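To fix ideas, we quote verbatim one protein's residues and fold tokens.
>
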Amino acid sequence: MPPRTTDSTPERRDDRPQPTEPEGGALTEGESRAAETVEGGDSGAGSEPHGGIDPTDADAADVDRRVAAMRRAADGGRRWRAAHLAGCAALLAVALTGGAVAFGGAGDGGAGAGAQAVSAAGALSPGDLARGDLAAGIASLQRHLRAQPRDHGSWATLGVAYVEQARTNGDPSRYPQAERALRRSLSLKPGNDQALAGRAALAAARHDFPGALEYADRALKQNPYNERALCTRIDALVELGRYDDAAQAADTADDRRPGVPVFTRYAYVRELRGDVRTAREVLERALDSAHAPADIAYVATALGQLAWNQGEYRTALDHYARALAADDGYLPALEGRARAQAASGDRAAAVKGLEQVVARSPLPGPLVALGELYEDRGADGDRAKAGDQYALVDAWTSLARAGGVNADLDTAMAAADHGDSKAALRAARAEWERRHSVHTADALAWALHVNGRDPEALPYARRATATGYRNAAFLYHRGIIERAAGDERAARDHLKAALDLNPGFSPLGAREARTALEDLEGNR
């Protein structure tokens, strides 16, 4: 499957649900008022023309303020966790969403002040937004929509841009903004494929994968060549654990809209089935043909992640360096580089890098990784620092749920090792009811293990590794569970396989795997 063109916008796989809402044409009167009314903030948007519509967004300083508020809230949650975590999370949601849950806010300040307003015929596409300054592109769309509020295409593009901004900033409060923009587009032109594809992307970002699949299919009925819908359909099938269907969807997407977004998904589907060679070849050819900085950063980061998964740290660092040469602020590359540095033994650089990542985007993955690095380092105050990161995960998941995100998988993975084991099991079971992916199987297996239910955990650990996906953490979990269940031979095999594949897969997990393997070898 050779790459043919790369003039399309990369989407990030996410990694993050709210029940699917029917799109029945025009909004109800109450819904129209909700979409057209500024909720909070001091922008004075109620005096805007065109029915009070004000699609302005919060500026970067406001994002920084809200992230700082989240950190203060999470710190309080750590110190008084038992009595105050729920109240802390509620205050956190207010702090992060204040003035920005609708189309109100302070505007983008300098980022978009000099940009020209977008003409009705030439409104920015999602591709333009991804390749340039996202905040400036959003600001330009906002100005255009104040002048042309019935431009359904620009409302759809704005909605997609809000989804991307939520992912970029780690701020789920953007998702309600995205939903309002996309619903506005559908009220102006019911059934338009741009907005339906945007709804699919929003549902996927919220971890509503059945909803994402439904919206993607509806968009493709309107336009079989809608790239975003084709890509989101692959994502949804992958996350639902329907890997054969995902492979067929990737082939279909490659036939219809070959380009960077499709190639990266095609490669990931192959990786999940254990075909690392094909995954690497596809990504390498995609990178060779990529020209836009956003495409280069995106594909090089995917190659870095693939190499890291195989324990090829120097290769991974080279790929991350290329990604950051194209975009020195690309957060997935910064996070990947830090993980590769930690696995290579450069813990100081890894800690510094992850601190920079979570300062900008406090998502569960890097927060847990940073907390574990603090624990592994063990200097004065490091245990408290680690606790801060884990408390911040709790705060983020509360905020995510307030933004309509299903955070059960994040909860299960973080809580199993660094929180309430019973809460981890509840979350993992709830997620398994929704989808049967390898990641969900692994999370449920590990949650059952930490609750002392290893015989029940073992079938899920086997299922997590059944597709051939080469993931050291999955092999480690399976080995530890097998040991606890009394199968020492299988435990040795899988713990050794984990450490042979990726000996630095986790600072704490790799250490436990080595200790367990040494004990098992001593018992032979």
